[in-house]
Amino acid sequence: MTVTSFFNRQTPVKFEGEGSTDPLGFRFYDKDRMVMGKRMEDHLRFSAAYWHSFTWPGGDPFGGETFNRPWMHGADPLALARQKADVAFDMFELLDMPFFAFHDVDVAPEGASLKESIANLNAIVEIFEKKMETSKTKLLWGTANLFSNRRFMAGAATNPDPDVFAYACGQVKAAIDATKRLNGANYVCWGGREGYETLLNTNLKRELDQLGRFLSMLVDYKHKIGFNGPILIEPKPKEPTKHQYDYDVATVYGFLERYDLLQDVKVNIEQNHAILAGHSFDHEVRLAYALGIFGSIDINRGDDLLGWDTDQFAMNVGELTLLMHEILKHGGFTTGGMNFDAKIRRQSIDPDDLLIAHVASMDAAARGLLAAEKMLADKALEGPVAARYAGWDEAEGKAVLAGERSLEQVAERALGLNPQPRSGRQEYLEGVLNRYV
């Protein structure tokens, strides 16, 4: 541990039990507790997000920096990046964090050229390598920021200028090289500018074909260098563009199928993005599992009264219970995890607020995990759902789904039927959920 002077606390946060009132003590997250045959830590696979924790200055559309972090101002960008890395790994150790995730430009400064930017990234990756030799914290995933720089204002892979496309290829190659070098479990693509602001100047088919080719090239390169983790696309419907091509899980699935990418590309799902698409988090996760493209989670929440991506720390135990119920039902994570793509509020300016936010959200997720374990053991939701669809498990239902009946045969059978509706029992099931949370 570097032991910088940034945080007031210098000893790792511990599990203290449900009776604890210490904001820097875990009440439910007991990393070694066994849940359905696996340690709690191995189920949840928490990851700290480098960008929101250490790069975001606390600004919003109407106001600038509020955090005034010491590594955000100075004449030597690489020296500041090294200082930021020291504080980051201090936080990882204080929280006993299993993983972290990063964008290239969040860990290292952009240079005057792509060559200089790659050199800066590699310099910080070398520091990460040394720190990770003595740290338990591993890399969940890396990615490239292809949306902040003005060169990407019209997209990266979908840009009308092939030189911008080429620059994006160079940046992504360096980022996945760094991810492999650090033994990252996944590589993520988020198309913040891969969309349009107006159809008046947009060729939709051309841009989709460009994006499909870009991802195909990335998949080919992944295999060439022996990167074994999946490529993950993070769906988002809008903001900053009017429409983004990775709108939601269903849209991404159709895109992957069209460009023959289903074998190598999955999705990284974020709660806040699901809400912006008009869906629930539970819907997006369930659909990803149903379509066979579930990969990983960005765990946060939005504000119901605001129409943009607020990236707040996840604290809703009921929502987290449904999330963990779905993940546990499907056997848990493989290469994915729960990445805290979340920002403390711009008024939370004390350094330890960053620790407290993570502790509270980790506890909320742990509560959801324990509740989901009990629900699955009791078949609290699985039983009623199975009963509702029981007819499809009988001989005729199975025959229809197996293609052993024609439309005429099923219609003939219907002449002797008089089916009556049955209650969906929504309020009963909502009450069942509340009993566990």
UniProtKB/TrEMBL annotation:
It is an enzyme of class 5 (isomerase). Its cofactor is Mg(2+). Keywords: Carbohydrate metabolism, Cytoplasm, Isomerase, Magnesium, Metal-binding, Xylose metabolism. InterPro entries: Xyl_isomerase-like_sf, Xylose_isom_bac, Xylose_isomerase. GO terms for molecular function: magnesium ion binding; xylose isomerase activity. One of its GO terms (biological process) is D-xylose metabolic process. Gene3D superfamilies: Divalent-metal-dependent TIM barrel enzymes (3.20.20.150). Mg(2+) 2 binds at residues 270, 273, 309, 311. NCBIfam families: PRK05474.1, xylose_isom_A. This is Xylose isomerase. It comes from Consotaella salsifontis. The gene is xylA.
